[in-house]
Specification:
By secondary structure, the chain is α+β, with helices and mostly antiparallel strands. It has seven helices and three strands, in the order βββααααααα. It folds into two domains: 117 residues, PX Domain, CATH 3.30.1520; 36 residues, no CATH class. It has a three-stranded antiparallel β-sheet with strand order 1-2-3.
Amino acid sequence: MERVDICVRNPQTHFDSKNNKFMTYEIAVTAKSTCFALPFSTIRRQFLEFKWLRKQLRSDYPYINAPNLPPNLYFSDKYDPSCIAHRMKGLERFLEECIQIKNYRSDTTFHLFLQSDLPLPKLKEQNEGKCDPNFMELVWKQGGKTQPIAPDFWEQFENGAEGKLTP
């Protein structure tokens, strides 16, 4: 039986190099489905990455009504625990509704968003067809992880490591 469970959990507050505050959410996927490369994965994403994904899915599939994301929190304290909980539920609902759409289930960018820690610039490159055809195989061989396993992943890949990446 095909089944995919998605959980958005473990919010974390971060600060960028300019000391701007932002939140990431862990996405845990358990997939008993031939559609998914990994049976289990956890990655972190920011809300702005969810916004990019929705925009990309709408662009790639204009004839499909994309599920809604939770609203932006302009007038609320977006770091208030109740706001965070509400946002996590909305993000989880968004992903669960996306999984129900056949075109999205088979979309490479959607899978990379859910099961790899590729940063947004690399997701964009992949979506535009600008990445080396072998790069996805390497990402999946690394369990969807590029950052913690091999910090110089992209350097090794661009120098022709061809599946021999070292941690």
